[in-house]
Each structure stands twice: as C-alpha cells, then as structure tokens.
Automatic annotation (TrEMBL):
Residue runs in coiled coils: none
Domain Hemerythrin-like, first and last residues per copy: 84-232
Name under which the protein is recorded: Iron-sulfur cluster repair di-iron protein
Protein keywords: Cytoplasm, Iron, Metal-binding
GO MF: metal ion binding
Subcellular locations according to the entry: Cytoplasm
GO cellular component: cytoplasm
Domain of life: Bacteria
NCBIfam families: FeS_repair_RIC (TIGR03652)
Length: 243
C-alpha cells in the first residue's frame, strides 16, 4: 500500500479508467493535474490515503465488463480516436450549447445573473478549444503518427519545425490547465450543474449538457495528458533525429 501512495493519479486512471469515478467522488483532478502522487493529493485535500486507495483497488480489482484499455493502444490509433471521438464531440456540442446559453441569459438572466458569467466562460472555452484542437490535428497528431510509421519501417526521423515533441505537448498541457480552471468555475457557478427550482426545460437540458461536456473533456484531457503525451515523449527518444 505504501508504494501505491507514490504512484500518480493519472497512472491509476491510465491503467483502468474506471478508477476515475473514485477520484471524481473525492473531487480529485485526474486529468489536468494527474501528475500528482496519491500522497501529494491526500495531504493537500485532507483525505485519508489508505481509504482512498482501498476504494481505488476495489474498483481496479473488480471484473472488467468491457472497459476499454486505451493504455495498450498504439499511439497513432489513440490519436485518431481522440480526434474522431472527442474533437468531434466538442465541435458538435458547442454548436448546440452556445445558442442555448444565449437564450438562457435573455430569458432568465434577470433572476439568475450568474448565467452571464457562465455564458462568457463557455464562449471562451469554445473558441480556445477550437484553436487547440486544430493545433493538435495539424501539428502534433501528424508528428505522432509519423513517429509510429517511421519506427515501424525503421526509417530516419527528420526534425520537426517545433524542435522536439515536448514543445507542442507543453503548450497543449498548459491549455488543458486553462480549460480545467474554466470548467471548475462553471461547475461552481451552476452548483455542480444543478438547475434552480424555477428552471424551464431548456435550462435543465443546458445544465445536463454542460455536465456531460465537462465529463467528456475530462476523459479527453486524460487520454492526452496521461497516455498519449508521455508515450510520445518516450517514443521520440528511440530515434536519431536529423535536421
């Protein structure tokens, strides 16, 4: 048990995504801040590490009923999955949520002024995520796929314009942190996505969609921060890079 306390939160979730539910229950960020150890998190949040690990191990050792082992996937497949599943999800849902939030501000803003700040935050998120995903799709992901292809063919890897894969990864992780902070504020303003008693159907649907959006974003960031990015850094070390 003591050795597990020095293991990072992200590595637990990378090995078995079902453990994410345990960390979420304790309000532990497993995606943007998944590089912290159990000891670090428990000391900062005043959590009993032994009880937390018991809960995590109970889930990890239970029968796996079809949970996907993303940690075993080749990196090119994982990059494709993130783009086709999570990037497309963000694109589709932002197009629905933006007009819904605008409508809520117009109809309910007088009685619920926090809606204006929620709307402002989500507009910012939609814009930043759109740019962020394009950088991944046009720059980072193609290089990751090129590394996989080059390794499979024993070729030589030419140096990319950004120098080393760690550079765009550092930028992406910083942008992930920004989105994590943005959604923490949205969750607080919405009382963890709990609609008020006078909420209409659109109000309730919008809050439910925001909650789902945050959950998808957490998984999206986890797959990159805790699996794709660190493995890409390791993979790059296998090559002799030429200019």
């Amino acid at each position: 048990m003591e050795n597990l306390k020095n293991k990072t939160i992200g590595s637990f979730v990378a090995e078995d995504f079902r453990t994410a539910a345990v960390f979420s229950k304790y309000k532990i960020d497993f995606c943007c801040k998944g590089n912290r150890t159990v000891t670090e998190v428990c000391e900062k949040q005043n959590i009993d590490a032994d009880i937390l690990l018991e809960n995590v191990l109970q889930v990890a050792q239970s029968e796996n009923n079809g949970s996907i082992d993303f940690n075993s996937w080749p990196l090119d497949l994982l990059a494709d999955y993130i783009e086709k599943t999570h990037h497309r999800y963000v694109e589709e849902k932002t197009n629905v949520l933006l007009p819904f939030l605008d409508k809520l501000c117009k109809v309910h803003g007088a009685n619920h002024p926090e809606l204006f700040r929620i709307n402002e935050l989500f507009i910012g998120s939609a814009g930043e995520l759109a740019q962020h995903m394009k950088k991944e799709e046009l720059v980072l992901f193609p290089f990751v796929k090129r590394m996989v292809k080059t390794k499979d063919s024993d070729g030589i890897l030419s140096q990319p314009a950004f120098g080393t894969v760690s550079n765009p990864i550092a930028m992406m992780m910083n942008e992930h942190d920004n989105e994590g902070e943005r959604f923490r504020e949205i969750a607080e303003l919405t009382n963890n996505y709990t609609p008020p008693v006078d909420a209409c159907t659109t109000y309730r649907v919008t809050f439910a969609m925001l909650k789902e959006f945050e959950a998808d974003l957490h998984k999206h960031i986890h797959l990159e921060n805790n699996i794709l990015f660190p493995k890409a850094v390791v993979l790059e070390k296998d090559f002799v890079v030429v200019e």
